[in-house]
Amino acid sequence: MFSKERTDGRFPDPAKQELWESMTRDFLNLRNYGYKDLNHWMEKQTYMSVGLTMMAAAEFGVEATPLEGFDPTSVDKAFKIRETGHSTTVLMALGYPDPEKVYNSPISRFDADQLFTFI
After folding, report:
1. Residues in the chain with pLDDT < 70?
2. Centroid of chain to Cα 38
């Protein structure tokens, strides 16, 4: 990414580019070796993108839902994901609902006062 940023001229000042790269490496090293939670942190970043994508899909009338509980190794193998240097953490289904199969029954939910504490 750093090479791409340099090529794109993201930081016209080379000193700022070097500072950015240093801070980024420090952050990744902290997550990777200090907290040892780099993958968990990256998954949280992915979910922020998933949430925004779901909201954007809704604006276009497209239903979206994230999917977990899959075997990421199988998905990565089927789509040759690992060869790109990446791995799968979440899947997202996008599409239009079948009006005849839309779930119309009431959904049971706890009342807000059972779920939240307001201060």
Report:
1. none
2. 13
